[in-house]
Structures are given as C-alpha cells and as structure tokens.
Fold this protein.
Amino acid sequence: MLRRMRERDPQHDPERTPVLVGVGAVTQREDDPERAQEPLALMRDALARATEDCGSRSLLERADWISVPRGFWDYADPGRALAESVHASGARTEIAEIGVLQTTLLANAAQRIAAGEARVVVVAGGEARARMLRAQQRGIAAPLTQQGELAPTRVLRPKQEVVHPAELKLGMVLPVNQYAMIENALRFADGQSIAQHRDAVARIWSRMSEVAARNPDAWSREPVSAAFVRDASARNRMLAFPYTKLHNSQWNVDQAAALVITSVAMARAHGILESRWVFPLAAAESNHMVSLSQRRPFHRSPGF
C-alpha cells in the first residue's frame, strides 16, 4: 500500500500517510430521561471506545485536533471537554456548523496528517434527542453541561446560504419538504408513474431496514416491509408526499461516534498492528450551494 502511494506521488512521505486506527460507537437506550446521559457524555463514551479500539491511550494524549459537527445542543466547545477526557492538553478544537458537509471533517483530518500539520486527529459527534423528547413528554428538564466562555479554536461555516430567504418566508425549510419536491421532480423526469415510484422507493428503504436489523449499532433494528414503509398509518404518518416517517432519517436518537486518525509513523510507534490500519484513500466533495428555489430544474444538482 505505502509503495503504491509513493509511486503515485514521489513527493509524498509514506510515514505521514493517514490511517484510521480507532472507531467507537455508542447507542443509549434509557427510557428515564433523568438517568439518560447527555450528548457530551455519549461522545466521551464513544471516544473512550475508540481509544480502546486503537489500543493506545498515549496516542490520544498526542491529539492535535478534535473536530465535532454541530448537533442539536448548545455546547460552547465540546472538543475541549473531549480533549480533557483523554488528557490531550495540546489539542486544538473545531466545530463544523450545520451546512458543512460531514465528510469535510474527515477529509481535513487526513489532509492535516499527510501535510505533517497534525499527528493525531479525532472526529467525534453525538446527539441525545430521545432523552430530550422523553424529558419534554414528562415536563422535566434535560440539562446540558455549561462551558462558560469557552470557544473552539476554529469554527467551520457554510460559505453560502443553505436556505434562500424566500424559502424561509414560505416555510419551505424542513429537509423533508425540500427533498419531497426533488423526489417528485425526479420521478417525473424518469417517466415513472406515481405508483411505480412509490413502490420503488419503498423497496429501497425496506432493504435498508433489513441491513439495520443486523447492525448492533443501529437505532432501529426492526425490519419493515415495503408496503409498511410506503403507506401512511398510525405508526407511520405521511410527512411530505411521497415520504412517510419511515422514509426519513430519525433525529430523536441517543447515539455518538468517534474516529481516531493518525499517521503511519505514529501508529507504528504506538504499537498498533498494521492489520488494524484502514487507509482513507480519497475524498471528493462539492460545497457549491444552490438553494432549491434557484435550481432549474429541481431534479438536478449543479454541485454534482
């Protein structure tokens, strides 16, 4: 692997090749919101599992960057709390605001390692909206840790408006509404009937539910039939035609994950077996934003 990378780029130092060496995931299933952990605690647990996965606590102490995508929480600098949990006193922290691609944090981590700007980078995130929802249902608070005047080293923000002001005025803000419009435009462009399209989309989501049912880290592990996904019911209300609730990603979850990325040299120095290395070979993304109301036609993305 390293030899092939050197052949592709003679200037590349193979010792700085980025490798993923630790992964941790946490799913909390606690019905009592007073006992359930907040998002920051879940992120800490995920990072602890990622540390255990890579098999080297000392590696995490050398983290140079800890990057966190913004969630539905108001922490000032969650990366700082994560740095403290692994004794990475020299780590810089980063928050990516909503509208920044999730892959951006992973690509930046690999680039920093390859350029010699960082030895270890952690990317972590988490939510506890199920905890928050249950607290609201019981009429009690679901408090979050307050971090005072802390601020991250860097904040990543989208360079353009994610939603056009006209869309805000018309209430066309929720992703489910915008994607439903795109879905219907795509169906028409492909020449599908409404019935054919609903059946085809429902089959895709049904197959994904079967995959999730075999994944211990999935929030929902119940396989559902295509007919149940497609048709609105008491358990599966219509959100925006043709999308029912089960067509959509669910944000009322208590989950967190953490990734540890380092260089070949650091992985080797800390005794991490090469069989545990995962090489991130490439990343490609487009940050060219065109709001939905400005697209002509709806079913095409200028960014792609």
